[in-house]
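SAMPLE LOG
Freezer: B-3
Tube label: C17
Construct: single chain, 378 aa
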Amino acid sequence: MDLPTKKVSLSQPLDDKQSNQSEEGIQANHAVLTYDVLRIIFQYLGARDLLTAAKTCRSWRIAARNEADTRRSPEFIFQKFAVDGEPPLPEEYKSERVGRDLRIKPSFGFAVTKVQEEGEWSPRGCYCSGLPSQCNTIILGGYEMVVNDSKISKDLGMATCLFFPEIAKLSHKLFTVDSHTFKGAADVDMREYSKKILKQLLPSKNEKSKCIIMLTNQDGYCFTRHLMDGLQKSYKPGTISLWGGVCVDLKVCKASPSSRTCSQNVRCCAITIASPTLQSWSVVLKRSCRTEAQIEEKLETFRNKIQLKKHSLGLMFACCERIDKKDLEIRIFKKLFPNVQLIGLHGDGEYGVNTLNEKREKDLQYGYSTIFLILTYQ
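STRUCTURE (predicted):
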């Protein structure tokens, strides 16, 4: 069945005199925007403009929908953002442009920033401006940023935004703990609340595996310790991947059915990701793994035992004490996974699990280590 086409007149409107001319007179010329032409044009549109174009007619809607279906890769925006309280510069990128410039419809996102202390700088505006209402965004601050093999400027305002697209049967949940979660600081309150969250972190009967991202700041470290202890005792080897750590700064733009909370300071947050079409693996480079030969051997074993699909994403969380190993670890990772985009940061502690181990890990909390996570899907 031929796809419908949209006809667009390229001639000037005829006046009454011209309209009464014989059939041999001047006729209106028409150009036909075929399906193939529409697909070529739509390649240059962002997600929001593509959605607008889809409302034009049936033929445009089919072409726009098929173009959107090809956009399944995670999307990165690496920029120097306009800093709140600082005079604007021409080259600075406005945070509200993030939603406008995306080529995908995001399901959730991260903004990784380079900071030395909590609240050191904030972008002018909010990263979530213009994003779909159901898209949660986590803002992570670390001593150093990781963006593939790029050298990061020391100027304030450097950030990388990563957005994960909607994929088949994707299920993700966000859990947050802020300063108002507990009335007091009693350990018993934290333990009981951590048990409630733990039940939702572990894979359900319908889920073969789950990716867990655990992030905290220094204020949330005690609570996260209870959560990690419970997870270590409860998880089944081979059913979860785990990535995260203690950030210098941590904020959340949280979506809800009725409203959105922008840049809320939180003590910790947990994200679970599950889909039949998605696989995830994590690996821990422990404190003893520091030489080039040791790092390469560990990552090469990791690479040989996993299978990448069409679209892949790499996350890295490393201890600030390993900053001197940053270039080495990134170089080896990119050598072994040349087509996997990598972002990450350096913080004050790490959470991870070696997914390829058949035995339960003795601990899921590390120091002086580096955690790599790979998400891959078709």
